[in-house]
Amino acid sequence: MSAAKRVQQWATFARTWHIFDCKWQDPYQSAHVIKKYLMGMHKPIYHPMNDCGDVVLCINSREVALRGDDWRQRAYFHHTGYPGGATWTLAWEVHNKDPTMIIKKAVYRALKGNLQRRHTMQRLLIYPGEEVPEDIMQNVTNQIRQFRPVPTRLDHIPEDEVKQFPKVMEYPEDYVLK
Amino acid sequence: MSFLTRASCLAKNAILSTFVRSISTTNQLRLKQIHEYKEGSTLIVEATSVPSPNTELLVRAEKIKDLTPAEKPEHTCYMCALDLDVKHTDVLILSQFVRSDGCMLPRRITGLCRRQQKKIGKMVSMAQKAGLMINLTPSYCKKDPKQRYAYKKFNTYFDEKTIFMRNIPKPVDRFKR
Ligand SMILES: [Zn+2]
């Protein structure tokens, strides 16, 4: 085996570290993207019996965006095992308690319920903010593309740019601006 | 009463040394401006019009050659004619349809057709709920989406397909023949 082939072999079976910025991303949509990288489904050598999954680093999980009124409509079920031990917690209450829980549960549900699921989940690292330990950050070599564009707030756009933006509405002659 | 007004006017004039009495702080933005002059013992109140800030930057479909339709359809409001794909995140467009407190302008001022007024109004409320136009809110607002109450403080996005969803019948719906 030549030196080039040997390096190709290492590169093929090495674990790659991906980073994913959850800012303004739907966790349930991005879970299906993250799942493919966790299981190694983006690789041509993928096989269910082949341990080729990668590590995914999710940052800014506090900034995830849920659709519509999902924050107060979506409930997370938990049962302690004792009689009357069932609880339903709303998504915003879960997020208040632990900002990494929503994305973790979303990826866990996106994965198939087999014996590999718990081991695959071990390769998912979630951080609520942008601060990641240095020893973890230096492994990262790839960034996963975001699902939705991050919207810009009107007060973050410079004022003269807002004024110079093309206008579609014209006020009537006798309108008194408020 | 008139004596009092004149007295206050005189007092203001003494400070500001002008004959223009300002009614509000945003006087420059008024399309109609109210001036008050004093000639001898008579008080003259007159309203003058001011050019609109939007006139120079106005975009209309008639001026764009590619968008002008060959035959003129019956219904043409300017937003339908422009045929823009406006999303709720396009705050630079949506902010033109609101007052300074973030409230949607009525149809007699916007001049939109009924469908567009509904669509723009819903997208304005979507942008407000998502906290994208937080500077265009009532004065008692804290101007920070993170300080809102309970579930409102977290990021939310909306799907524009849901605006006219109510009128689309579901496949399971049955109709009388
Ligand atoms: Zn129209």
Automatic annotation (TrEMBL), chain A:
Keyword Ribosomal protein (UniProt): yes
CDD domains from the UniProt entry: Ribosomal_L13 (cd00392)
UniProt GO BP: negative regulation of translation; translation
Any one Gene Ontology molecular-function term assigned to this protein's record: structural constituent of ribosome
Keyword annotations of the record: Ribonucleoprotein, Ribosomal protein
Domain of life where this protein originates: Eukaryota
Keyword Flavoprotein: no
GO cellular component: mitochondrial large ribosomal subunit
Signal peptide: none
PANTHER family: LARGE RIBOSOMAL SUBUNIT PROTEIN UL13M, RIBOSOMAL PROTEIN L13
Similarity comment: Belongs to the universal ribosomal protein uL13 family.
Protein name, as recorded: Jg16657 protein
Organism: Pararge aegeria aegeria
From TrEMBL, chain B:
A GO CC annotation given for this chain: mitochondrial inner membrane
Protein name: Large ribosomal subunit protein mL66
One annotated GO molecular function: structural constituent of ribosome
Gene3D superfamilies (alphabetical): Ribosomal protein S18 (4.10.640.10)
UniProt keyword list: Mitochondrion, Ribonucleoprotein, Ribosomal protein, Transit peptide
Intracellular or extracellular location(s): Mitochondrion
Pfam families with a match to the protein in the record: Ribosomal_S18
Organism for this UniProt entry: Pararge aegeria aegeria
Gene Ontology biological process: mitochondrial translation
Stated family: Belongs to the bacterial ribosomal protein bS18 family. Mitochondrion-specific ribosomal protein mL66 subfamily.
InterPro entries, alphabetized: Ribosomal_bS18, Ribosomal_bS18_sf
